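Q: Structure tokens for this one, please.
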Amino acid sequence: MTELLLTGAHLADGTTAPLRPADVLLHHDRIAAVDTPGAFPPEIPRRDLTGLVLAPGFIDVHSHADNAPLLPTDDTTKIHQGTTTEIVGNCGFSLAPRSHQHHDTLATFLQRLFPPLQLTWTGFHDLFAATDAAGYVTNYCPLVGHGTLRIAATGMTDAAPDDHARRTMRAALEEGMTAGAFGLSSGLIYPPAVFATTDELTDLATVLGGSGHYVTHMRNEGDALLDSLDEALRIGAVAGRTHISHLKVTGARNWGTMRAALDRLDRARQHGQTVHQDVYPYTASSTMLTALLPSHYLTGSPEEILTRLTRPTARAEIAAAVTATTSWDRVQIATTASHRHEGRTLAEIAEATGAEPVDALIDVLVTERLRAAMIHFSMHEDDLELALADPRTAIGSDGLPPGTGGRPHPRLTGTFPRVLGRYTRDRQVLTLPEAVHRMTWLPAQVFNIPDRGLIAPGKVADLVAFDPRTVRDRGDYQDPLRQPTGIPWVCLGGRTVVEDGRYLGPRSGTRLTPRS
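A: Here is the predicted structure, written as tokens:
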């Protein structure tokens, strides 16, 4: 069908303009025209969307679905939310580059986050050839991960890269940008990036030429949040643009700091910096379980890390580090290699086994050979809502990679309907046009995503229709993979891919490159 007329819906066009009734004409993969209801000839084939809001397809600015194209089955966790574009390669984790010298180091490190992968590529051109050949359920916008760059150059070491290693990292970043990446990401709580200096990151940022994106999971989101923002802004000033990943305040003693963090970002904007941030609509985070360990435990091979964990001195040191920043009953196991302990907190595991919580933590890491992820209940609703309300906030799921199984954080399946349901309809933190804007045109502008984010003539027909009265997330921390409700229709490049809430396929996304 070369033409399709969408009728009956109220339009949330991606700007913050009020909703309005409109008919939208699609021609092939593009929006051909938008006009008042009844303005188009009656013989045009049509799709009735009465009672629904029609919006641009949502853009997930913080995804870890780098591996989704390489899965044998289609990852539908995002398309059912109305998400049609994902920015991947966040938190310093990209699937390239891979050096032959440090192949095993990269492979074993990625297994802590991703399901098993066959790393057959070296650089980004090779990686993208593989993902292009496999196809995409949603549009794919990759970043270059600093952590992966560092592993390719120096392995899993706390030593500063020498001049040769720095040249290697810069060259790999340049190759990634030439291949079509959207910027550089960092994850400064994860090895080996946790050992990087500000100077190392600033050196890489020069490759972006003063007009690129530096996207960062900062060094600290708790006690040193404001200092970490300052570091991110210094690096981003060299890159050109700064994007703060999953802005949050962690740890009860730091709750209430969000206002100061937002003020810090506003001052940077007043001084001419281009700065944005993203948020996910939950008060629990999720990452690798190894993130609880002191950083000096995390160098070297898995065998070396496991040896450190079983030393007699480890128990007291790890217990002190964890209890200084969290409570054992606020750390829930999300996924493990064996799928044991999933859905239980470290406190519950300890009680069931008659052990101390620190022993439970060490036992899970050792028996699972470090392949374990956690959910950490660490934030306050007031800080979250303040960040959501800020007009520079985009929405990102930060969902863990698909294909790991277990009980991942429900943000993997519920982020966008939760914004529309809980925080727009129910709590009224955002108006509906504002919420749609934060998930469409704002991220398209921030990341230079071509021809998406607006319902306007000439734009690509990536669209979602949802019921504002019923849209909501359904997954929770014990049953996270439940499909949301209230999103019956999704269109990708002019092709209907979700009908009556059912995914139809085939893979209709594409890998995008930044708008020049």
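A few notes: The mean pLDDT is 97. Residues 163-179 form the longest helix (17 residues).
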